Structures are given as C-alpha cells and as structure tokens.
Amino acid sequence: MKLEINFTKVFIKGIFLFIIFNLLIAVWQPNIGKLSLYNSIFKGRERLPFGENPKQSYNLSLFDLDAMFASHVIHGTEKAEDEFRVIVIGDSSVWGTLLRPEETLTGQLNEMSFSACHVKAYNFGYPTISLTKDVMLLEYAMQYEPDLILWLTTLDAFLIEKQSSPIVLNNEMAIRELGKEYVLKTDINNFEEKTFWDKTFIGDKRAWADLIRLQIYGVMWSATGLDQI
Fold this sequence. Notes:
Order of helices and strands: HHHEHHEHEHHH
Radius of gyration: 21 Å
Shape: globular
Helix content: 25-40%
Strand content: 5-15%
Largest sheet: 3 strands, parallel
C-alpha cells in the first residue's frame, strides 16, 4: 500500500498553523525572557548583557529586562542568612567598560574581607547615562532583596535629553508604570511603539533571535569568563 502525500494540502495547513501561531504570540505576549539556560546549564553572568561585538565578546545588547536579569548570577543565587546583599547601579563606569568582571567595583568589593558580615555585591550597571534607565533597572532589581544600594551617578544623567537611552525607549510599559507608581516625569515622546504586527513572532523576530543568541553565547561565557574585549 503506497502512502500518498498531498504536498499542497500539507503546505496550506502549515501556512495556516504558522499564521495562528503568530496571532497567538501577538495576543498572548509570553514572557519568553524568563526562559533561560543561565544559572542552570550555564553559569550566571556577573553583569547585565551588553556588547557590540558578540562573536568575540560572547555578549550582546538586548532590551528584554526579563532575559537580561535571568542571565545574571543573582537570579540563581539564593540569599544566605548571613549575606549582606549590595547592588550597584550606574553607567558604563559601574558596568566596567574595558574591565574584566573581577576588576569592576563590585568585583573589588567581593574581594574584600568584612568581619561584621558576609558582603556580596552585584553589578547592575549599564553603559548609558540616564536616571530613568537607572530607576527602571533598580525597580526590577528590588525583587532580589538588597540590603544596600550603591547608586553612582553624575549631574549629566539629570538632563532631559539623556533620558531617552535605547533600553528606555524599548521598555515603554515599564517606564509608564514607574511614572504612575512614583509620580515621575516620564513624558518621553519617542518610545519604540509596537503595532499588532510588531508583536507577532515574525514582527518581533529580532527579540526572539537575540534571546536565542544570548543562550548560545552562554557556552563560551561559561568556558572563558569573557564578556567583552
């Protein structure tokens, strides 16, 4: 008995299912960023993902806060009873441009010996100057129950024109919620507004691709500890 396959029907059904899949993604908007291989298969990163040369630094810039924090070492670290948890917020000087993770401020703090308690510092710096960006990252980081916040900033970060950093423009919902909760000025006019099409799998394929690439780079990050050049 020969098995006859109607390739035309298979193709049409495949197209139909793909369209349904795209519509479901657009309507549902799943938090795919929380699905991470870091802190399980791969070791967590010492700082938030940021990179302009992914193939050499095994790192890349993306705007999904869930994915960024899920890749960070703090996400997979349970707070010990004797831990005094410190989070450090700021720009590229805190993130550690041109420095290895152990050479940054948080790396140096973790090398120090404190007799009073077990101090553990976590790097949540990000290489753009913007108070709005800092507040957004700080708000997200509060779920990790810090005991102390070190926020390094300058007067330059107060300028209105400095607030529209790429990571801010791509997280309109988070910024709007901050404005409502803390009565902050968030009248940024050039947010990256997403249409219904932009929310589909095809329309948002860059975000999906970045998430997958971030997981792939976890292999080399775990092997080398290199996250920039």
